[in-house]
Amino acid sequence: MIGFRSLCLAGSLLIFSGAALSGSHASPQGPPPPAPAAGAPQESPVAKLTPDDIATGKQIFAAQCAGCHGFDGSGQLGPNLHGVGARRGDAGIFSVVRNGTGAMPPVMSLNDQRVWQVVGFVRTLGDAGPMEAAKGDPVKGEAVYDANGCAVCHAIGMSGGGVGPQLTTVGRARPPKYFYDFLRDPGKNPPPGYELVRVVTKDGHEVTGIRVAEDTYTIVLRDVGEHFHSFDKTNLKTIEPQPGKTVMPSYGNLSATDMDNLVAYLSSLKGAQ
Amino acid sequence: MRAAKYFVIVLALSGALPSFAQVPYERLMKSDAEPQNWMMYGGNYGSQRFSGLKEMTPQNAKDLRVAWAYQMRGGGIMESSPLIVDGIMYVTEPPSNVTALDARTGKPLWHYVPVVPRDFVPVGLFPTNRGVAILGDKLYLATIDDHLIALDAKSGLVRWNSLIADKADGYAITQAPLAINGKIVVGVGGGEAGAHGFLSCYDANDGKLLWRFYTVPRSASDPGADTWADGSWSNGGGTTWNTGSYDPVLNVIYWGTGNPVPDWNGEGRMGDNLFTCALIALDADTGKMKWYFQFSPHETHDWDSSEPPILFDATVNGKARKLVALANRNAFYYVLDRETGEFITGVPFAKQTWAKGLDAKGRPIKMAAELIEPSAEGTLVYPTLTGAINWTSPCYSPITGLFYVNARDGGAYYVKGERKFEKNNSNGVVGGGGGGMRPGPADETTTSIRALDGVTGVKKWEYKMVGDSWTGTLVTAGGLVFSADAAGNFFALNADTGEPLWHLLLGSSVRSNPVSYAVDGKQYVVDSAGNTLFVFSLP
């Protein structure tokens, strides 16, 4: 087939960064480059912050962080931050804000004092109480997970498939409400990097898969069999994003008890082992 | 003087390399007569980024390939627009380093590495450098920590070092200076930290300050002070963080100014806030203002007017006019008479939702405040905070009469923060901003190369890209436009039609302005991706 290559990378799952977050962060003179070395964490002044400081931190958070982490810090595109203080400590949060981590860019538009105020606000998320506890039984939930074949597509630790996101630490990042919503309607808000796209080549071949990469000239999809398909756009008749659709099936038909248990199991996945 | 704190590494000096020739002002003034050289940031004094070279054409562009590449020694992303003079390339690396390369082979000739305090974190900008200026036998470098340094162009040795501003006041510099007749003109950045904007002019021989023009009043009796309620001019802003242009015949410097402070909460600074978000025209000998044109009075979205002003002459309504054109971050394309500042043209070149249009004098007719002003919960407004264009340069071809701009279409939720403002770098409010933004609707931001009629701003063609590209444009006499998409595909388009002719994925984002030069009669095009400089030629 002209211009069509199917790359089957058996046994390995390449990690792609997924679609870049559009809009960028507040960076008046350009988008953020990779993390600079500057701005090493200092001795934490968080304990000395005043209520005014925390209020300022909350305001900065609303302006610059809530787009990904939600106004209440419970996570959207970015992870839930409730309890992050206990895990990373003040200096750890400072470092992530200043230097970025993973898909999160470094924040250069804030001076150190402002970053500490943000850290102070984020600490209040943890102090306000841990994330809402799941009400089901995680042990029974693991059985629901196994019975429904979730491991075909998802990995926990070193076992499972690579079609969907790894779940090893998903309970750390996502609140139970997210799991309920997502399991019932997974197409409504797919995680970044898992948008489904259907293409039709000029000679009539159809492929639907997760958009692994796309630029002005090419697009790469990964189908449910974990095959990569690379296309030159000049050879495509149509490229159709599939909003609302996902490779992940809906589990809205689970009984209420099974759903509670499954959510409890997912919430328990914190990567301790 | 801090010369002792700086050091130079001379890697190699070979007799086989091109010999360095002086670059007197006369050569800069007539730079279009030397298309093989790219002797200043904007290519010529009009910042047209037009190359007179013709070897590469729409017919042979498909054969372009990499001639050589140079990897920076440090990390980060290169944003430098290199100079090429008589076979030697001068390129800058983050934060403020200079490297001289053999422009034919890419071999390093020398490196200059200033000592920048490691703990210095500029507010509101990334510590990078976008290029040097050349005049006589010296290169001129503005450092991130606000020094203007003259280097011997042959060796990279420091000849003088002048402190422009105190970084503790929020100042930081990323721009290339502008060299004119015996003088070096340089601006400052740092508007988010409350830096008080000014433009300075130094003696090219000894680094002595000749004049300084403040873009924002410093006392109640200064011009424009009555456009800042309650003495709020004292907040500062109006920085001059991108390189401007120069008309040698009129002897006038044209420079864009940045946002008022704080950015997103304008309640404490009611009024037009002169001379922020404006184009200022200054007498090059005295620094006195000839005229100004304010694009965005009382700006509240961080839409700096720092974009490079492009100078060209054209016939308007049957009359020959000297013009200055600027594609503004606020999404409007403006054409002014550069002798008088008279408004001639103003039309949107990217999606915008903040103005109903411009009045007869070019002043925006804003939408209702509740639709566009930043709010506690966030107000969706187009363009984004980073703007319909940011620091990257458009270009203009005197052959096609077209203005080529990489235009961004996208919106953002603008958030208003506290109004209180505490000046200086160590105590800015939300980085001096009084608010900020959250990304607009996901995946919506796109970029396109648009070719506009230079006089009317009417779109002749556009080339749509995937993603949020941060690359300037170059146009050549051979009829090509060069730029890159967000993924790092460097490409050539037909300058007349926008037809795509060639592209190559460079493996990282391209965040610099392409330039062209020739050595031994062979044309090259250069741009950088990630930390690597790529040079292209025909086989």
Describe this structure in words.
The complex is a heterodimer of chains A (273) and B (539). By secondary structure, chain A is α+β, with helices and mostly antiparallel strands. Helices cover 31% and strands 15% of the residues of chain A. Chain A contains eight helices and eight strands. In chain A, the strands form two sheets. Chain A has a six-stranded antiparallel β-sheet with strand order 1-7-6-5-4-8, with no helix packed on it. In chain A, β4 (196-201) and β5 (206-214) form a beta hairpin. The longest helix of chain A has 16 residues, at 84-99. Chain A is globular and about 65 Å long. Chain B is mainly β and 539 residues long. Chain B has one domain: 8 Propeller (Methanol Dehydrogenase, Chain A). The radius of gyration of chain B is 22 Å and the shape is globular. The interface between A and B is large, with 44 and 75 residues.
Tell me the layout of helices and strands:
The complex is a heterodimer of chains A (273) and B (539).
Chain A: E1 4-8, H1 51-64, H2 66-69, H3 84-99, H4 112-127, H5 138-147, E2 155-156, E3 159-160, H6 170-173, H7 176-184, E4 196-201, E5 206-214, E6 218-222, E7 227-232, E8 236-241, H8 256-267
Antiparallel strand pairs in A: 1-7, 2-3, 4-5, 4-8, 5-6, 6-7
Helix pairs in contact in A: 1-4, 3-4, 5-8
Chain B: E1 7-10, H1 25-29, E2 50-51, E3 65-71, E4 83-85, E5 88-93, E6 97-102, E7 108-113, E8 133-135, E9 138-142, E10 147-152, E11 158-163, E12 178-180, E13 183-186, E14 198-203, E15 209-214, E16 245-247, E17 252-256, E18 278-283, E19 289-294, E20 310-316, E21 319-327, E22 332-337, E23 343-348, E24 355-358, E25 364-366, H2 369-372, E26 379-381, E27 395-396, E28 402-409, E29 412-416, E30 435-439, E31 446-453, E32 459-464, E33 474-476, E34 480-484, E35 489-494, E36 500-505, E37 515-519, E38 522-529, E39 532-537
Parallel strand pairs in B: 2-33
Antiparallel strand pairs in B: 1-7, 3-39, 4-5, 5-6, 6-7, 8-9, 9-10, 10-11, 12-13, 13-14, 14-15, 16-17, 17-18, 18-19, 20-21, 21-22, 22-23, 24-25, 26-29, 27-28, 28-31, 29-30, 31-32, 33-34, 34-35, 35-36, 37-38, 38-39
